[in-house]
Amino acid sequence: MTIQEVQLDRKKSPFYSRQAKLDRLNQWHEWKGYSSADAFYNAELEYFAIRNSTAVFDLTPMTKYRITGPDSLDYIDRLVTRDMRKIKPGRVAYAVWCDDQGQVIDDGTIFHLMEGEYRLCSQERHMEWLTAAAIGLDVNIKEETADIAALAVQGPTSYSVLKNLGLDGVENLKLFGLMDFDFEGTNLMVSRTGYTGDLGYELWIDPSKAEALWDALFEAGTNYGIMAIGTTALEQSRIEAGYLAAYEDFLPALATVRTGRSRSPFEIGLGWLVDFKKPNFNGRRALAREKRSGSTWRLVKLDIEGNKPASHSYIYTKKYGRFRQVGFVTSAAWSPICKHNIAIGTVRTPNGKVGDTLWVEIYYQREMHWTRLMAKAEVVGKPFWDPERRRVTPPGVY
User: Fold this and answer.
1) Which residue in 40, 9, 98, 34 sits closest to 278, CA to CA?
2) Banded pLDDT at 3 (limits 50, 70, 90)
3) Domain ranges of the chain
4) Rounded to whole angstroms, how far apart are CA atoms 363 and 138?
């Protein structure tokens, strides 16, 4: 099949007709059966829309499950490692779920829509696992990926755009909160969530109103620098925010073939999501054992000298003038907003404590010639990009 035939064979998002009109590059990839753009105009310009104005990303292909029934809370609480009883209706929780060995199957967001009703959003499809985990509980699990159209609206002017769209009261929406609005007679759910580490929202609506929402949103954003973006720009921003990506920074446990290739929540910096005050959850016994004995791996955020991105690089320690390989970089980028060379990686413990100095082996090519350098890297404890505007309620007008 030709590239064009493969693209035609993919599903099209309800927003595709609007995106196709903006596309200048014809750079698309497959995301869970859907066509998803790498970029529309220029990946760098799209990145700066995230940090300087408003960027719009099509979230529709994200896997979505609706979980309902009398035992829905018991089910969700047993499935994930954090205490879901603390997440009240109208709130969103970031969570991970593990297999019986305490290895991460996936991470995602759980929307508590109303009493006894949840939406689970994830990278991978998990119906078989979710169904098996529901044995003995009175719950209903339905995949609704194609039933919900979704947009991420991210950046410093995103609040101004939504306010101009007529969403009165959106200024009161707190981080990880949900609100419902009427849009042309259809419910529009807005969550203050995102994958950019900046001020931002996600919009969820029936596919029949997707094109109308897109048109109204871009009309409202005319004076606020609104721009559609692809995955390349989003990837840049999520690395700056220190957010993890499945198949980049960890492998889902159910997808690994070789032992030792999956990770526990502690090994990918998500130990804060593990609540041992809960009496039972998948992987609890294995995670308690790891908590007592220590982890094999540690996730690190690296501030690297120079400006050559350290993609797919080995990480070393240096002692008595000798380098010893202790890990590898999983995600890397030069950050235009931070003006730093940044990376996320995984190293063997006890290496990688905050403040440690490590070394990264970088290869780069210029005019056919390859150059190797050993760059010093400092382990940092905070996200590379974490502006106060992300949390302020009501948001400032930019």
Assistant:
1) 98
2) very low
3) 3-60+148-240, 296-382
4) 55
